[in-house]
Amino acid sequence: MKVKHEAISKHLLNIIPECKVRHKHESNADEVVFYMEISGVTKEFKISDQYLQAHTTIELFDFIKQKEVIKVISTYGKVKILIREGYPAISYR
Question: Checking DSSP bridges between strand 31-38 and strand 87-92, what pairing results, if any?
Answer without folding.
Answer: unpaired
